[in-house]
């Protein structure tokens, strides 16, 4: 079946080769209201500026939970005949039919950040992402190293069921369960809204004064979590770990409010994602999975090149 699908795609691509050789690459992310996704935009821009055949557009819903809006954006890109799509799907199931339609229309799709459902395999050409399970385990190891093996750890998550969340939060929790006696409080879902994460964390800190650790699993969630810790006067009283690397999170690390934050290669997702589409359109082979990596940034390494290359 997979070879049949690939053959079908090649046939459609051949029929539309004149259209596909140059034109618009649509970069569609989970939301445009986050610095993380704006850094993906910068990476995509860098890839486009390095060549002259293709242009690109950057779009995304107002919030990560506006899944229907993102589906419409993919459908609109297909309808206007884009040459390729770079997509960070907000929902693994809901975006799959639109990606299948792109495939049937001969439009190559590269998925970034979060996986689609397994049933969608064969309808996109590459997946670029942090290994979120490995990243979650790295954060869990740091939590045990800093907080010890006894007590409560709150998990502040973002959108339930998203591919990146399943790996990141799931493997964090599983590693703690297998390697410590730490008790998980949560997870709580902020819907990637900073204000909601702040309110949730404020409530959790008040109702669990004995917390030894807390993990904010993406940018808006970790920022809201950090602000709640600051407002509660609990900085330094529990081990706080974040995910992603905008200016707020960098400041939390520098001030010692946050022990460390795990930072993905968001710029690389945009740059390598667009380059993968360009390579596909040129008839070149691309790897089916490209790991864009993660760096655990703390006070000791925050000014090193390794950290500065992923912070934004």
TrEMBL record:
GO terms for molecular function: carbohydrate binding. Keywords: Signal. The keyword Nucleotide-binding does not apply. Gene3D superfamilies: 3.40.50.2300. CDD domains: PBP1_ABC_sugar_binding-like (cd20008). It holds the Pfam family Peripla_BP_4. It is found in: Cell envelope. It comes from the Bacteria. InterPro entries: Peripla_BP_I, SBP_2_dom. Residues 1-22 form the signal peptide. Its main location: other. GO terms for cellular component: cell envelope. Residues 25-285 form the Periplasmic binding protein domain. Belongs to the bacterial solute-binding protein 2 family. This is D-allose-binding periplasmic protein. It comes from Tritonibacter horizontis. The gene is alsB_1.
């Amino acid at each position: 079946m997979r070879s049949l699908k690939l053959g079908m795609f090649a046939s459609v691509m051949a029929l539309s080769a004149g259209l596909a050789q140059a034109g618009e690459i649509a970069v569609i992310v989970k939301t445009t209201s986050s610095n993380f996704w704006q850094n993906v935009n910068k990476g995509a821009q860098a890839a486009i500026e390095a060549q002259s055949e293709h242009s690109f557009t950057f779009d995304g819903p107002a919030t990560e939970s506006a899944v229907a809006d993102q589906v419409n954006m993919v459908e609109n890109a297909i309808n206007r005949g884009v040459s390729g799509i770079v997509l960070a799907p907000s929902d693994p199931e809901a975006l799959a039919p639109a990606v299948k339609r792109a495939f049937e229309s001969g439009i190559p799709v590269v998925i970034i950040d979060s996986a689609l459902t397994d049933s969608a395999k064969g309808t996109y050409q590459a997946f670029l992402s942090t290994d979120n399970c490995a990243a979650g385990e790295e954060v869990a190891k740091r939590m045990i190293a800093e907080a010890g093996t006894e007590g409560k750890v709150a998990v502040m998550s973002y959108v339930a069921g998203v591919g990146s969340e399943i790996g990141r939060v799931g493997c964090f929790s599983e590693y703690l369960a297998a390697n410590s006696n730490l008790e998980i409080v949560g997870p709580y879902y902020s819907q990637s809204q900073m204000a909601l994460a702040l309110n949730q964390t404020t409530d959790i800190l008040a109702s669990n004064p004995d917390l030894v650790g807390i993990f904010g699993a993406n940018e808006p969630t970790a920022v809201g979590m950090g602000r709640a810790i600051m407002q509660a006067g609990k900085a330094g009283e529990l081990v706080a770990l974040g995910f992603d690397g905008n200016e707020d999170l960098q400041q939390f690390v520098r001030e010692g409010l946050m022990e460390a934050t795990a930072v993905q290669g968001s710029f690389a997702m945009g740059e390598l994602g667009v380059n993968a589409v360009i390579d596909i359109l040129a008839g070149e082979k691309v790897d089916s999975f490209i790991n864009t990596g993660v760096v655990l940034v703390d006070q000791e390494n925050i000014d090193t090149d390794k950290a500065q290359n992923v912070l934004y």
